[in-house]
Write a structure and sequence with these properties.
By secondary structure, this protein is α/β, with parallel strands linked by helices. It has 7 helices and 9 strands; from the N terminus they run βββαββαβαααβαββα. It has a domain of 157 residues: 3-Layer(aba) Sandwich (Rossmann fold), CATH 3.40.50. It starts with 7 loop residues before the first strand and ends with a helix.
Length: 227
């Protein structure tokens, strides 16, 4: 496959902050409509790598593109085509709002009317929990709601963090099936998992940082480097 046919491409992409190395150097490609999972323990740069590929963080070195757009030079354009699942510290849920209220709020933020929009709650398996407040959702449902909110903007790239945190293996399998269904519609998916055993649904896996890399506190990274 030629480089121009990759939906996502990264070449020796790396991020360092004043606290030390965050991720990389990492090189990988993802085909359109594929699912790629970033693997690693907490603090190994998975979240930062996802945000970099979504045009939300600026790498220190290397290069990356999304659908031919450079993640640094064309960051604003990348952000417009990238949908974010839940990423702690970036787009946390409002615990008092229902799932349906979250979707309505997201539509307002993105300037999307309800007419012609997909029913993203039904699409992500939350049809029966529309009126349930976020604080009463289980871990799996919170992941599903994050994916629903990402889909409101009809993204061409979807990034989602913590896909297996606090989930059973059966729940992870269901989330994986949902991601593959989303990808089948032409959306390229980048997700992150803590455990390699959780990533069986993925087309490919990537390690955010070499095993010798130091771990860095996520909140420090976001404060220091989030665009």
């Amino acid at each position: 496959m030629k480089n121009t046919e990759w939906a996502v491409a990264a070449r020796r992409l790396q991020l360092s902050t004043r606290q030390g190395p965050v991720f990389g150097p990492v090189t990988f490609d993802a085909a359109p409509g594929s699912v790629t999972v970033i693997l690693g323990a907490s603090g190994t740069g998975k979240t930062a790598l996802l945000l970099t590929m979504a045009g939300r963080m600026r790498p220190s070195s290397g290069s990356a593109s999304v659908l031919g757009l450079d993640v640094v030079r064309d960051a604003a354009k990348v952000r417009r085509i990238a949908g974010l699942g839940l990423i702690p510290g970036v787009n946390d849920l409002e615990e008092a709002l229902t799932a349906e209220q979250h979707v309505l709020e997201q539509r307002l933020i993105l300037g999307r009317s309800r007419r012609g929009d997909d029913d993203v709650l039904a699409r992500t398996g939350l049809n029966e929990t529309r009126l349930v407040r976020a604080r009463d959702l289980c871990a799996e449902q919170r992941v599903q709601l994050g994916l629903a909110l990402a889909l409101v903007g009809r993204p061409r790239l979807l990034v989602a963090d913590d896909l297996d945190r606090d989930l059973t293996s059966e729940q992870v399998m269901r989330i994986g099936a949902l991601l593959r269904d989303i990808a089948s519609g032409g959306v390229t998916v980048l997700g992150a998992c803590l455990d390699a055993d959780s990533a069986g649904f993925a087309d490919a896996t990537v390690f955010a940082a070499p095993s010798a890399a130091a771990t860095v506190n996520k909140s420090e990274v976001l404060a220091d480097a989030l665009a």
